[in-house]
Design goal:
single chain; alpha+beta; Aminopeptidase; about 25% strand; globular; binds coenzyme A; acyltransferase activity, transferring groups other than amino-acyl groups; N-acetyltransferase domain-containing protein; GNAT_dom; Acyl_CoA_acyltransferase
């Protein structure tokens, strides 16, 4: 079984995996892993947005201007909320310099890198999904994490008992029609509560950012951070990513629902 989380999370993971041929072929669609998402306001078919919101209870808008997000709020009306995340970006030169410095230090004692295979049903993939879910991150399917849906690298560290205690992920979510097609996304950063504040978040984030350039061949990297997540923002900035003013990612949900992810 490659899906993990609540019934809703698993249903949406499956839907995202199965929709990849459509997402790759359709200008404006993005492989966001956990729900349908678009990256071009002008290409949005609102009937599709309305239908998916009614069925899925969540819809993503990536790399939108703040004005577009306001237009989306107006279009959706009072039954829906649009939670927003700021976009931070780095190019290869700045990120390589910052991440190389972070990665000069050894992995802290007692922790080891977990080697994930291409098998989405692997126990290690399940342990990564569990770590994400336990730390407030809505997980991806095993196939997404294993890089079987879009090009992707998943990072994990385990403690001496073999428990996964830190995760990160890089992938290429934008299709070839997108102006962001050379951009990798890094996210799904989770550190177990008892291991926080020791630089592990910065470390796995740096490993994922480096993999985005070296393994996935990206031209630039973006990460998304919510305004209430100061620690995540510092972690991201330590890897040289900087806020892109006026550009946001939005997640529409019914007003009564909790925020979909951290
Ligand atoms: C965000 C998270 C991954 C950070 O992991 P971590 O291992 O505790 O972070 P680090 O120890 O590497 O610290 C990262 C930065 O935050 C700072 N920081 C860490 N804990 C802090 C705290 N309690 N208060 C203020 N700053 C703090 C560190 O000093 C560091 O900044 P610096 O490089 O400027 O010194 C972790 O808190 C977590 O799993 N949170 C829940 C899931 C989440 O929010 N994920 C990110 C969304 S994608």
């Amino acid at each position: 079984m490659t899906y993990y989380g609540t019934e809703k999370q698993q249903r949406l993971q499956r839907q995202s995996d199965e929709a990849q041929p459509k997402i790759a072929a359709t200008p404006g669609l993005v492989q966001a892993g956990r729900f349908f998402s678009v990256d071009n306001f002008d290409l949005i078919d609102w009937a599709f947005v309305d239908e998916r919101l009614a069925q899925d209870g969540v819809f993503g808008f990536r790399m939108m201007s703040a004005t577009c997000i306001e237009d989306i709020r107006l279009k959706l009306g009072p039954s829906y909320r649009v939670d927003v995340w700021s976009v931070c970006r780095a190019d290869r030169t700045a990120a390589t310099r910052a991440c190389t410095a972070i990665l000069e230090d050894d992995i802290p004692g007692g922790l080891t890198r977990v080697n994930l295979t291409a098998d989405p049903g692997d126990d290690a993939v399940r342990a990564v999904q569990t770590c994400m879910a336990e730390n407030g991150i809505a997980p991806f399917s095993g196939a997404m994490l294993a890089g079987n849906i879009v090009p992707a690298v998943t990072i994990a560290l385990a403690d001496a008992q073999g428990h996964v205690v830190a995760t990160a992920h890089a992938n290429i979510p934008f299709n070839t029609h997108s102006k962001h097609s050379g951009t990798a996304w890094v996210g799904l950063i989770a550190v177990a509560a008892q291991q926080r504040g020791k630089g592990l978040g910065r470390l796995v984030n740096a490993l994922a950012v480096r993999a985005a350039f070296e393994t996935l061949g990206a031209d630039e990297v973006v990460e998304f951070v919510h305004a209430d997540n100061i620690i995540s923002r510092r972690m991201i900035e330590a890897c040289s990513l900087r806020l892109v003013p006026g550009i946001l990612c939005g997640l529409a949900t019914p007003i009564v629902d909790a925020r979909f992810t951290t």
